[in-house]
Amino acid sequence: MNKKEQPIIVGLDIGTTKVVAIAGRKNEFGKLEILGFGKAESAGVSHGVVMNIEQCIRSIEQAIEKCLQSNPNLEVKEVYVGIAGQHIKSLQTRGDRVRMETDEEISKADIDLLIKDQYKTYIPAGDQIIDIIPQEYTVDNTQTTFSPIGMSGVKIGANFHIITGDRNAIRNIKRCVDKSGLNTKDLVLQPLASAAAVMSDEDLEAGVAIVDIGCGTTDMAVFYDGILKHTAVIPYAGVNITNDIRNGLGVLRAQAEQMKVQFGTALADEANANAYITIPGLRGLPPKEISVKNLAHIIQARMQEILDYVVYHLKQIDLDKRLYGGIILTGGGAQLKHIIQLTEYVTGLGCRIGYPNEHLAGGHAEALMNPTYSTCIGLILRGYHDYENGRLRFVGDGGNMVHAELDEPIPAIRGEQPQGAVMTAPDPVAEWEDKELARQKNEKRNETMKRLFDRMKGKFMSLFEEVDDQEIE
Prior knowledge:
By secondary structure, this protein is of the alpha+beta class.
């Protein structure tokens, strides 16, 4: 499909400490190009649940505003929103449907009706179905892992993984997005979004557990034999580690967070017993000396508890010994030192860090080489999955778009790359305040951008080669 015909999909990750908005579009090679990036501090959200509507709305608006500032030609109206929280639950169910017109082959409409029937599944009062994911299909009692579209049969059935959440918590998230002037295209469970960003086809076949260690919650998705087997939301994550440090060492919350990021390690045995951190005293009190070893013991205790929950969920589905792809850690908590060694020790499985660059076009991987952005990029990929399978329409009025006018210079962000009428990803690590340096770079590149725009038609390969040569700082 022509690049111009591809929809622009925006992922919105509303976390406990940050709100991230990323706009992306697939190019003609099937890779994701980042068109805009915005990040803001989160307020009014605790453990994945909205606690203050007004504060959450302001955080969303700031993230979207920064996303638009990164590419003034971008217009955002629809978003895919990630959802997590302690209220998320999942269950397994079975559905069958007898076809009336047995002479005709099984169509997508038959599968859609089978999935639609699962919305009648009994769930506890006050809950709402978020997602229904088919697993193994059967046609006349013959099992098939793949979609049975095109086959012949009388009765079709499938096992389903149904994800539910508290209706009021879901409404609050949608209300925040709506009041920010955006339309919620779909709600996606965060571990499924993260899995889409960091997992390859080989991982899916071998069997892996995606463990997204965020700030408010640790999200988990388990895949085996090419299908989703289990999802879970563990109510402990980075904020609990910070609170443990704060209470155990008697420091301020900001100091606890800074110590965790700069000096923290998940293995106490690897910490330097002779190293100390000096914390300034409050209002004339003497400075406080804190042992790096004690800090590591506090972090390891909480991380080990989180990983014990991971093992517990794997044992529930009898996959604690059979995941040959091991565990893929992602999210902000995956950046903790020695987290891989602790995970392998506690779970007995292999472990690696999952970076969200599996499906990105060249030039973006370095800028977004951070597990923190896995969920947001995965939301864009989930949107494309729905689009390519005909589940949702993106064409027509009301969608996201990029205006092609280049009358006014685009404010450059460090690491920008000219791409005709479309800007590629800003560097999230660069300082946004350095506008003067960015403006000077932009002036030097204006002529190059215009020449590229004129020659863009029919010369995609040369264009992308030029983009790849300009690495993001």
